[in-house]
Specification:
mainly alpha; 96 residues
């Protein structure tokens, strides 16, 4: 893929955002789905706050914002049972 040149601090912040929302799908149980939505909402609030600060302070703080977002996301783990996927469902597990 040929991507245009993006300044390193901007790329780092964008990568932290992508990673923050890169969550496995939850299992089909109500508990797993509720936990998934809780994790997603907490990470979204953190990302929103990080972006607000980044926009207010400017590009010189993007690297700091990316590091902060990564630290906070690490404190909000995907602590639910993930969906096993169609390959596991075909082998006797529950499908989605």
């Amino acid at each position: 893929m040929n991507t245009p040149e993006i300044p390193a601090p901007v790329r780092e912040l964008l990568a932290a955002l992508v990673d923050a929302f890169d969550l496995p799908l939850p299992d089909i149980t109500d508990g797993a789905e509720r936990a998934y939505h809780r994790v997603l909402a907490e990470r979204a609030r953190t990302a929103h706050a990080t972006l607000r600060i980044a926009l207010a302070t400017g590009p010189e703080d993007f690297e700091h914002g990316a590091a902060y977002l990564r630290r906070r996301v690490a404190e909000i783990p995907a602590d639910y049972r993930p969906w096993p996927g169609p390959q596991d469902a075909a082998e006797g597990g529950e499908g989605r």
